[in-house]
Amino acid sequence: MTSRTALISGAGIAGPALAALLTARGVAVTVVEQAAVPRSGGQAVDLRGAARTVAQRMGLLDAIRAVSLDQRGIAWVRGDGSIAARMGVDAFGGEGIVSEIEVLRGDLAAVLADATADVEYVYGDSIVALDDDGSGVDVAFEHAPGRRFDLVVGADGLHSVVRSLAFGPEEDFTRDLGLYSCWFTAPAGIDVDGWMLMHNLPGGRVATVRPGRVPGELKAGLSFRSGRIAYDRADVAAQKAIVADHFADGGWEVQRLVAAMHDASDFGFDSTAQVHLPSWSHGRIVLLGDAAWSPTQLTGLGTTLAMVGAYVLAGELAHAADAAPNDDSSGGLGRDAEIRAALRRYEERMRPFVASAQKLPPGGVDAFVPTRALEIRMRLAVMGLMTRWPLNRIMAGQFDKAMDFDLPDYGAVGVHAGPVG
Ligand SMILES: Cc1cc2nc3c(=O)[nH]c(=O)nc-3n(C[C@H](O)[C@H](O)[C@H](O)COP(=O)(O)OP(=O)(O)OC[C@H]3O[C@@H](n4cnc5c(N)ncnc54)[C@H](O)[C@@H]3O)c2cc1C
Fold first, then answer.
1. Where does the signal peptide begin and end (predicted)?
2. Structural domain includes residue 379
3. Residues 398-407: b if buried by 16+ CB within 10 A, e if exposed
4. What's the CA gap between 119 and 27, in Å, rounded?
5. What is the CATH number of the domain that holds 397?
6. How many domains does one find in the chain?
7. Is pLDDT larger for residue 254 or for residue 333?
8. pLDDT single digits (tens) 206-237
9. Which of 290, 299, 358, 369 to probe ligand 1 with, by most ligand atoms within 8 A of CB?
10. Domain contains 223
């Protein structure tokens, strides 16, 4: 009997990408998302290297470019507003800190979710129990009645419920970097002139602001170093108060950003942690994207890994199903042995890419958010030299990572009208 149903937890980047790719192979896919409605906007993310090829093969590259941000690059700003250093979007072949294709997370998620009408999206719900009996997975939901699926995929991010239920508690697999970030939309009022502006403050804090997609709208972020903070993930007012507390002082446009944060209706806040697991699958349950391997925002590679991972997982499942001596197979997921083999190969292919991506850029958190004024001055000086020899040679290794993956050819995977490369 060929297996043909998949449940994906999480409608971020990895979930909708996998949903579209599996649906194109004849699998009946349901996506369950905790948020009540699709979340628009959000932080800016990068589509780099191999992920661009995946988008192109899916026929979605033009649609993604159409919603990408129009930015000139990144500029580091001193407290008096003067520019200390710049790196244009064309640096490092378009793979620099602000890459050639940057898009708001919600906009990319929408393009992926709109790629096919055949996926069943269920918003405002969550998996609460999983029972894998070897031939299928019985799933209980917070609201919807229980259902049985042939495969369950946890693409539900850093705080994955699938990982908690099937693999163990979050703290067993996360490595906290001691950095918290919030992101939100701010009204026009800071002249960014097309640049992403970044300002480091003493005490391990950084403020960023960049052009939004809608004219007159800015996208802002505030990050600070801290030991673990206990907070209620549902209490936005309390989260804003935590951030405001850390940014009570600070020059440049920081106080204007804090005021905008208080008014923002699209505020997001989270810790920064990497995820490391000895295995990404357990029977018919598999993890994908940040849930499996969060590399963190410091690498700029989380979205690339999510897209490439979805492509490889869908491709390996289809490849195994096609290769099986199937009776009634016209696509689908294959039988138990084929699913296990596919999940093994998915992991073998992705492990080296993930391991390389998880290596933080030189200096790690210390370089991103230095603590003392002298360190900040040194950082600005270094940033000014990044595109010049010999620093450009050192940094090229970091920026080339996204291309250092031999993307397998799984045959036609186009999910949307457009060129399938
Ligand atoms: C501040 C910040 C800046 C970043 N900057 C960059 C960048 O510049 N470049 C880059 O490439 N990446 C960046 N990232 C990382 C990037 O956002 C992630 O790597 C990427 O979104 C991973 O995609 P994902 O689908 O695996 O997870 P997510 O995009 O996190 O999606 C997970 C989804 O699962 C849902 N979910 C959670 N729990 C449940 C549940 N119980 N049931 C159902 N659904 C659930 C969530 O609501 C969410 O929609 C940044 C992240 C942050 C926080």
1. 1-19
2. yes
3. bbebbbebeb
4. 9
5. 3.50.50.60
6. 1
7. 254
8. 999 999 998 889 999 999 999 999 999 999 99
9. 290
10. yes
